UniProtKB/TrEMBL annotation:
Residues 24-277 form the EAL domain. The chain holds residues 283 to 561 of 561 of the full protein. This is EAL domain-containing protein.
Length: 279
């Protein structure tokens, strides 16, 4: 009897596995087609300098504009894109398109402040990543200092290689930001060895401001670390005035979050900037 149950469970498990594989296969195919059909689009979220209260840049966030499902957020498809390797092609498109759109924004008279683009670990580890970034800059004629690349602590998985790649990216003139900082497993020693210009405090800590002393302590430690290392620090996921005041008091340099604006499609983003800047 127990044996029968066991094999039933086993059958069920096998069936589920087949189902999951099937699903994954579909999403993967859909993603590939989405890329060919141009169904990805870019959203922009502004960043603000806390010492001047001025707009000081933006982060580009990808969305999948599905013909039936509508806008799909990256959390729903990036892991499959990552596993299948499609992230490399998607990421390349994001990089090229971001640079083109940013260049156009500047030509239209918007301020010459930097734009951040996320790089996945797999994309970062591509042999030709420096070439890819260089091409995106050349094709768009975007000045390199206006491009900032966001990588996560996972890049320290191969520290020697990463140091080299970051150096080469830096020599193109772009800046590097370490995203989701505090959630990964990189040692402080590694952080001080990487040529980065910015640390980005993860929103899980920001969310707990006023609620949990431990998160507040980590935030203040990250800010001190960044300033000790002479790099800029930005907080993501700022939603409330209380969070904003805490970050200001602790001398965080920049912020980004729903408190100021959700990520917006280009058209809405231009309206937002025009209103904010009183252009
Ligand atoms: P991330 O780079 O840490 O981006 C921040 C995420 O927080 C974004 O989610 C953003 O929409 C969201 N967010 C911003 N402000 C707030 C806020 O005040 N409250 C809350 N609750 N959330 C806020 P999104 O756009 O869904 O992106 C999720 C993640 O997907 C990103 O995390 C990034 O790791 C990845 N991602 C997005 N676009 C790209 C891309 O083009 N390439 C790669 N490789 N990854 C990307
Ligand atoms: Mg990011
Ligand atoms: Mg982040
Ligand atoms: Mg994050």
């Amino acid at each position: 009897r127990a044996k029968a149950n066991g094999s039933d469970a086993c059958e069920l498990y096998k069936r589920e596995m087949r189902y999951q594989l099937h699903e994954k296969f579909h999403v993967e195919n859909d993603l590939r087609r989405a890329l060919e059909r141009g169904e990805f689009s870019l959203f922009f979220q502004p960043q603000f300098d806390l010492s001047t209260n001025q707009y000081c840049g933006e982060e580009v966030l990808v969305r999948w504009d599905h013909p039936v499902e509508g806008l799909i957020s990256p959390s729903k498809f990036l892991s499959i894109a990552e596993e299948s390797g499609l992230i490399v092609a998607i990421g390349e498109w994001v990089l090229k398109e971001s640079c083109l759109q940013k260049k156009r924004l500047i030509e239209q008279g918007f301020p010459e402040v930097p734009m951040s683009v996320n790089l996945s670990l797999k994309q970062f580890l591509q042999k030709n990543i420096v070439e890819t970034v260089k091409n995106a800059l050349q094709e768009s004629k975007l000045p390199p200092h206006l491009l900032e690349l966001e990588v996560t602590e996972s890049v320290t998985i191969d520290i020697d290689r990463t140091k080299g790649v970051l150096q080469r990216l830096l020599s193109l003139g772009v800046h590097i930001s370490l995203d989701d900082f505090g959630t990964g497993y990189s040692s402080l020693q590694y952080v001080s060895q990487l040529s980065i210009q910015e640390l980005k405090i993860d929103q899980t800590f920001v969310r707990n401001i006023g609620k949990e002393r431990q998160s507040e302590g980590i935030i203040s430690m990250i800010i001190n670390l960044a300033h000790y290392l002479n790099i800029t620090v930005i907080a993501e996921g700022v939603e409330t005035e209380e969070q904003l005041l805490f970050l200001k008091e602790h001398r965080c340099n920049k912020v980004q979050g729903y408190y100021y604006s959700r990520p917006l499609a280009l058209k809405e983003y231009k309206v937002f900037l025009t209103d904010t800047l009183h252009l």
